[in-house]
Design a protein that fits this description.
Blueprint lengths: L1 E4 L4 E7 L13 E7 L1 H11 L4 E7 L1 H13 L3 E6 L5 E7 L5 E4 L8 H14 L5 E5 L10 H11 L3 E5 L2 H8 L5 E2 L3 H8 L3 E3 H13 L5 E4 L5 E5 L2 E6 L11 H11 L4 H15 L19 E3 L7 E6 L1
Helix pairs in contact: 1-8, 3-4, 4-5, 6-7, 8-9
GO molecular function, one term: 1-phosphofructokinase activity
EC number: 2.7.1.56
InterPro entries: 1-PFruKinase, PfkB_dom, Ribokinase-like, Tagatose/fructose_Pkinase
C-alpha cells in the first residue's frame, strides 16, 4: 500500500481550445474536472493501475467535499483533515500543440493546529504502508520544515519516504535523508543554483542532491526522459511519444509507476518512464491505466549521453 500526502490539494478544471488568444472570448472544444495536487495524482495513477493507495489531505468547504467525492469515485480511500479554509480550484487551458497555460490558486492558509493535525493523521494511517509519497507545494501556514518533520517521523517508524517538492521545503527535508526525491529539470536547477543545459548537467545536479542527503534522485526531464541516480550509479530512460496532449500530472504518474514497481532500481525507472509517456498523451490530468502503457517502447541505459543538450534547458 502506498500512502500519499498532499498538503495543498485542488480541484483542477482543464479546457481544450483551438488557440489561446489573449483578450478574446474562447470556446472550449472539451473540458473536464479532476482531483488535483501532486500527491492526489500519484494516488489516482496508482488506483488506475489497480494498486492500493490512501490519500491524506486537508479538506475545506464545498470544493473540499467535491474533491473527496471525486477521489472516492475513482476508488481511492481518503483520510481527510478538516480545515477552515476553502480547498483551492485551478484552471488549465490546453492548446492542440500541447502548450498548457495554468492558473493555480494559492489555497487556504492552515493554522498551526491544522498543520499538526495533518502530521498526526499521517502517523495514524502509515501502518502497513510500503511507501509514503509527500508531494507538492506547502500551503500558507506550513513552515518549510514541515516536510522535514514528516520525513523524520516516518523514518523513526521504519517507513520509506518519497518526496516531490522544491525550494526551501526540499532543502530543509534533505537533512532527514528522504529515500527518493523526484525533481523536474527546473527544480533541479533551482536546488543547485545554476542552469542545466545538458544531461550531464542534470546528472551532476542530482549527484549533489544525493551529497546533501537524498538517497536516490528520480529526475523528470520532460521530452528528454528520466534519470535515476542512486547508490548503484546513474541510469537514463526514455520512450517515444507520438503527440503531447497534456503534461499535467505526468511527473506524478511517473512517481506512481516508480513506487508501484518497488521504488528502486532499473525496473522501477522503466515503469516511471512508461507511466510518464502514457500520461502526456491523455487529456487534462487523466492518469494512465494499464491499457495506456507501452513498456516495450521504453529504453533504459547506464551509458548516459552526458553531452546531449536538453530540449528545454532549465534556467
Amino acid at each position: 500500500m502506498i500512502l500519499t500526502v498532499t498538503p495543498n490539494p485542488s480541484l483542477d478544471r482543464t479546457y481544450e481550445v483551438p488557440a489561446l488568444d489573449r483578450g478574446a472570448v474562447l470556446r472550449a472544444t472539451t473540458d473536464r474536472i479532476d482531483p488535483g495536487g501532486k500527491g492526489v495524482n500519484v494516488s489516482r495513477a496508482l488506483a488506475a493501475g489497480g494498486h492500493r493507495t490512501l490519500a491524506v489531505l486537508p479538506l475545506g468547504g464545498p470544493a473540499g467535499a467535491a474533491l473527496a467525492g471525486l477521489l472516492g469515485a475513482e476508488g481511492i480511500e481518503v483520510a481527510g483533515v478538516p480545515v477552515a479554509g476553502q480547498t483551492r480550484s485551478n484552471i488549465s487551458v490546453a492548446e492542440p500543440d500541447g502548450t498548457l497555460t495554468k492558473v493555480n490558486a494559492a489555497g487556504p492558509e492552515l493554522t498551526a493546529e491544522e498543520a499538526e493535525a495533518l502530521l498526526r493523521k499521517v502517523g495514524e494511517r502509515w501502518a502497513g504502508a510500503d511507501w509514503i509519497a509527500c508531494c507538492g507545494s506547502l500551503p500558507r501556514g506550513l513552515a518549510p520544515e514541515w516536510y522535514a518533520e514528516l520525513v523524520a517521523r516516518a523514518h523513526r517508524a521504519g517507513t520509506r519516504i518519497a518526496l516531490d517538492t522544491s525550494g526551501p521545503s526540499l532543502t530543509a527535508a534533505l537533512r532527514e535523508r528522504p529515500d527518493v526525491i523526484k525533481p523536474n529539470a527546473e527544480e533541479l536547477a533551482q536546488a543547485v543554483g545554476r542552469p542545466l543545459a545538458t544531461l550531464g548537467d542534470a546528472v551532476k545536479a542530482a549527484e549533489e542532491l544525493r551529497d546533501c542527503g537524498a538517497r536516490a534522485v528520480l529526475a523528470s526531464l520532460g521530452a528528454d526522459g528520466q534519470l535515476l541516480v542512486d547508490e548503484d550509479g546513474t541510469h537514463f530512460g526514455g520512450a517515444p511519444v507520438a503527440a503531447v496532449r497534456s503534461n499535467v500530472g505526468a511527473g506524478d504518474a511517473s512517481l506512481a509507476g516508480f513506487l508501484a514497481a518497488g521504488g528502486t532500481g532499473v525496473a522501477a525507472l522503466a515503469a516511471a518512464v512508461a507511466h510518464g509517456a502514457a500520461a502526456v498523451q491523455l487529456p487534462g490530468s487523466l492518469m494512465p491505466a494499464p491499457k495506456d502503457l507501452d513498456p516495450s517502447a521504453v529504453r533504459v541505459t547506464d551509458a548516459v549521453p552526458l553531452d546531449r543538450e536538453l530540449t528545454e534547458p532549465a534556467p
